[in-house]
Amino acid sequence: MRIGTVLSLPNDYSRFARIKDADGTGYTVDPSLLPKGVKEGSDVAYKVEIWGNDSGLVYDAQEK
User: Fold this and answer.
1) What is the mean pLDDT of the chain?
2) CA–CA separation, 64 vs 52, rounded Å?
């Protein structure tokens, strides 16, 4: 699994969270996949389905 940082959580503008990897690439995450109690800036282990152009969707996330 990759390790990344929670960049943002759901808010008024998006119902999804974002995880950023060490290279700065951000991935979309359904918030139901995040560990309970996770906050912005937390490190999490995740698996991502890579799409074209460095985009992708996280399908599994766990505490680091």
Assistant:
1) 89
2) 27
Phi first, then psi, for residue 42 (nearest 5°) are -75, 145
* Distance, CA of 47 to CA of 14 (rounded, Å): 21
Whole-number Å distance between alpha carbons of 58 and 20: 11
Q: Are 31 and 18 in contact (CB under 8 A)?
A: no
DSSP of 30-49: -GGGSPTT--TT-EEEEEEE
Query: Looking at the whole model, is its pTM more than 0.90?
Result: no
What number of CA atoms fall less than 13 Å from residue 25's CA on the CB side?
Answer: 14
The backbone torsions φ and ψ at residue 32, rounded to the nearest 5 degrees and listed phi first, read -70, -15
**Residue 30 identity (one-letter amino acid):** D
Radius of gyration of the chain from Cα atoms?
A: 11
